[in-house]
Design a protein that fits this description.
The protein is an alpha/beta fold and about 425 residues long. The chain is about 35% helix and about 15% strand. Strands 4, 5, 6, 7, 8, 9, 10, 11, 12 and 13 form a ten-stranded mixed sheet that branches. It binds D-gluconic acid and magnesium ion.
Length: about 425
């Protein structure tokens, strides 16, 4: 039987529900056989598009679709310089599509190619946020009523920009919120005074201590309202000075979080040793890592409990399954990144590892919009607080290309970059 080869690689840019998605379609020498992969880097989607169309598509034409490992390794070094977000996303789109094709050719879901299932479905966590303790509490209750058991909680810090709430920059949808200083400044006169400094373009002011006090107040409120049966998670989103992160993780211990996420920025990985020695608050990190050198020491030294890599940011299923296997040896659990800028194809790829790997931890999910569900037949479903794959061959998902064409990228201020958030004195804050 003649080898099945790559005939064409197409990149689909679409925005069904206010988040820009990058989907790769690998078409083969078999007319009806194709694969889909996620290459979504929502702040730089057209850079990924160029990396695929200008470089990987010509490089891979006529290659044998069966040789996923060789295609990954040769593509990885074909740029010479490597391990960055744009090229890794481009590589991921093709890699996931090739795994999709391999499963279709073998007539089995990718998790069966990897050794079968360790569980029926993947428990998920959802995002509850609000402007006040009461509003967050109401949203938590709503999710509990819908059958969710793991809930990430984020609350606006009055008078400041706060990640993960309506007052935050929401660049994933490219809609920057207006400056959030309209509320009374709940701070000392010092902050009030310097708040009025003329600060260049900013989508709000972030100050660490008001945020930290507000977050601890939220955990206290939720534990007194819901008790300790509910699993609550929180994303610091790397914004605070690292030593305050050490203090905060220790303060969180009594609230028994499921995990505390992105306590430090990737540039401050070195602080994990310090916090690890002082508290048992479970730590999660990974969505911002692209390079093996950022990742390997964190697993080897058991500095995190959950690895939260955004799978397309490291190049797809091929590297992700290797990292998951290494993590198992150190008892680090997976928690693949999965908000609305992980496409449904990306979630389908996450699910292949979520069902297969022994050291699964939790799967993040943002409830998909109606257009997204319609555009991606076979999208993993949510039921009983868990995500379910459909058991179809490959990744089990498709895309309605005609519909995707009807949802082109919307024009965005600053090209859809992550908004600039600043301290009261004007210093830029890590996102
Ligand atoms: C999360 C992440 C996201 C990122 C977003 C960036 O934990 O889901 O922090 O909210 O901010 O994916 O585009
Ligand atoms: Mg995060």
């Amino acid at each position: 039987m003649p080898a099945v080869t790559i005939r064409n690689i197409r990149t689909i840019l679409t925005e069904p529900d206010n988040t820009r998605l990058v989907i790769v379609k690998v078409e083969t020498s078999e007319p009806d056989l194709y694969g889909l992969g996620c290459a979504t880097f929502t702040q730089r989607p057209t850079a990924v598009y160029a990396a695929i169309n200008d470089y990987l598509a010509p490089f891979l034409k006529n290659k044998n679709v069966s040789d996923i490992e060789d295609i990954w390794q040769s593509s990885y070094v074909s740029s010479y310089w490597r391990n960055g977000p744009v090229l890794n996303n481009a590589l991921s789109g093709i890699d996931q599509a090739l795994w999709d094709i391999k499963g279709k050719m073998a007539n089995m879901p990718v998790y069966d190619l990897l050794g079968g299932r360790s569980r029926e479905a993947a428990p998920v966590y959802v995002h509850a946020s609000g402007e006040s303790l009461q509003e967050v509490g109401e949203n938590v209750q709503r999710y509990i009523d819908e059958g969710f058991h793991h809930i990430r909680v984020q609350m606006a810090t009055k008078g400041y920009s706060t990640y993960g709430t309506d007052r935050a920059q929401n660049t994933v949808t490219g809609l920057s919120t207006q400056n959030v200083l309209e509320g009374p400044i709940v701070a000392t006169t010092w902050t009030e005074r310097i708040h009025n400094l003329p600060v260049a373009h900013a989508s709000g002011i972030f100050e660490p201590k008001p945020y930290l006090r507000s977050a601890l107040g939220l955990f206290d409120y939720l534990r007194s309202k819901f008790g300790y049966g509910l699993e609550i998670l929180h994303d610091v989103h790397e914004r605070i000075p690292p030593i305050l992160g050490v203090w905060f993780a220790k303060e969180c211990e009594k609230y028994q979080l499921f995990f505390l996420e992105d306590l430090f920025s990737p540039e401050d990985n070195g602080y994990f040793k310090m916090v690890r020695a002082q508290t048992s608050t479970p730590l999660a990190m990974g969505e911002l890592w692209n390079n093996p050198h950022e990742i390997i020491p964190m697993i080897q030294e058991r500095l995190i409990d959950f690895i939260r890599i955004h799978m397309s940011q490291i190049g797809g299923i091929t590297p992700a399954r290797k990292i998951a296997a290494m993590a198992e040896l150190y008892n680090v659990r997976t928690a693949w990144h999965g908000p609305n800028d992980t496409s449904p194809v990306g979630h389908a790829a996450n699910m292949m590892l979520n069902l297969n790997t022994h050291n699964f931890g939790i799967q993040e999910v943002a409830i998909p919009g109606r257009n997204t569900v319609e555009m991606f037949p076979g999208i993993p479903t949510l039921e009983k607080g868990m995500m379910w794959a459909n058991g179809l061959p490959g990744l089990g998902i498709d895309i309605d290309e005609k519909m995707a064409e009807k949802f082109p990228f919307k024009p965005r201020e600053y090209g859809g970059s992550w908004d600039t958030v600043r301290r009261a004195d004007g210093t830029v804050v890590k996102p």
